[in-house]
Amino acid sequence: MKPTLALLAALLLAPLAALHAADAATNTRPNILWILVDDIGLDLGCYGRKEVHTPNLDRLAAEGARYTRAFTPASVCSPCRSSFITGLYPNQVFSHNMRIYAPMVKHALPNGVECFTKYIRDAGYAVGMPSKYQKTDWGFETPKAPAFDIKNWDELIKKEPFFCEYQFAAPHRPFLPCKEHPVDRSKVQLAPFEADLPEVREELGAYLEYVNLLDMQVGKLIDQLKSAGLYEKTIIVFTGDNGPAIHRGKCFLYDRGIEAPLIVRVPAAFKPDFKPGAVIEELVATGLDLAPTFVHWAGGKTPDYMKGRVFFGPDKQLAPEYIFALRDRHDAEIDRIRSVRSKDFKYLRNYFPEKTYDEIGMNNVLAARAMRAAFKQGKLPRDQAAYFQPKAKEELYDLKTDPFELRNLVDDPALSGTLQKMRAALDQWIKETNDEGRLQEDPKLLEESFKTLLKTREDRGDKPKKKSEEKDQ
Ligand SMILES: [Ca+2]
């Protein structure tokens, strides 16, 4: 029997070995360039934002695919970035609170969990983060083995195949001007929850202008890739870490806080599973799905603990029915919100409904300050005033008819079935992820850690903060 088995094994393995030999000889595995930007919404020309000038990203979307329902797992940096690098939800890697200041201590990653770049390196890829901006803002203890090896662009791109995470600071505050493509503040399109006040227009316009600058920066990076002859050998994935720092964006679990532009370009040689310019409406949970997708494309072994899916390519897996997001403490601002998003509905559970959005959110932004004054004078209509009033315990929105999440349908009998299903899905998720947001942080430790936070700001030269002033992001 032995020779027969050996022969059978040899026959079975022969094509695989031949394939690997071909890979080695012709380098047929794609390079992967993951572009991650800081605090952005769906505010690109290709997503329908008319006031911006984003030809480079629009071209990438025209040559690749644009995802319209990609969501981050939280609405601030550290939880999201902790999630991207592990492929787990932030509350599974001790990163649901942002951030951990001494004497609090960061936890090490759970046993067996690694930064996903390990699996890509193990598959034979060179792994690097060569950008000047390098935010490894993780809520867990940084693992001893570095997540990225190469910090120089020229060095990295010589080592094919390579995996590159390239970060941009834009369009994080402070919003930088774009003199080549300024944004006319009088023409910015306001959402119904934004009051038409000069400060609101200024802030939104300044953010959009910084998006224009970002597009130019991304354009330069793509040009570098092209001039190195690597554009048709490199898969490009462009996305953001969380929503923009504008009214009701960053810090919120409304769509503006968690929806992310997601553009994927796969060179023809690697047989994309979409046509150029495709618009893909499936749910993508970026926190969960990016890691296994990258590992799979690199030919690596995806660990069982990653529950995300491969979201593009010949081995694409099915989109989930629901994805989840969380909001917990943000610096010194304590809150807990959980959300469930289906294709067309959003369910939110507020654990501190008595706290207004103004209290727990971006009360630092210019728009909120200006709107607060108008609210006190009784000048805001209902959809704008809600920001300054206590929240409901639960919220349910029909996103087909109410994309701005303004009509809470939690008491609508016609939707009681949807509500029950989403409630149950959230309960299940809390159980499955062993959601540590259930546990309160030690108040004494918190108090001490806030002193460290204040000291950090002072050392940095920040002015002392008042409630109405800017917070650390
Ligand atoms: Ca961010």
List the helices and strands in order.
HEHEHHEHEHEHEEHEEEHHHEHH
- Tally of domains: 2
Name the structural class.
alpha/beta
Low-confidence stretches: 1-25, 465-473
Q: How does CATH name the architecture of the largest domain? A: 3-Layer(aba) Sandwich
The unique ligands bound to this protein are: calcium ion
Percent of residues in helices: 25-40%
CATH superfamily of the largest domain: Alkaline Phosphatase, subunit A
Largest sheet: 7 strands, mixed
As laid out across the biggest beta sheet, the strand order is 3-4-1-5-6-2-7
What does this structure look like?
There is one protein chain. The strands form two sheets. The protein has a seven-stranded mixed sheet, sandwiched between helices. The protein has a four-stranded antiparallel sheet with strand order 8-9-10-11, covered by helices on one side. Helix 6 packs antiparallel against helix 10. By secondary structure, the chain is of the alpha/beta class. The chain is globular. It folds into two domains: 29-320, 3-Layer(aba) Sandwich (Alkaline Phosphatase, subunit A); 337-459, Arylsulfatase, C-terminal domain (2-Layer Sandwich), CATH 3.30.1120. The chain contains 13 helices and eleven strands. The structure holds calcium ion (CA). Residues 38-39, 77, 241-242 line the site of calcium ion.
Chart the SSEs and their pairings.
Blueprint (H helix, E strand, L loop, with lengths): L1 H25 L4 E7 L17 H9 L1 E7 L5 H10 L30 H6 L3 E3 L24 H5 L4 E7 L29 H30 L6 E7 L14 H4 L3 E4 L12 E8 H12 L25 E5 L9 E5 L3 E6 L6 H4 L5 H11 L5 H4 L8 E5 L17 H17 L10 H17 L14
Parallel strand pairs: 1-4, 1-5, 2-7, 3-4
Antiparallel strand pairs: 2-6, 5-6, 8-9, 9-10, 10-11
Helix pairs in contact: 3-8, 6-10
Calcium ion binds next to loops.
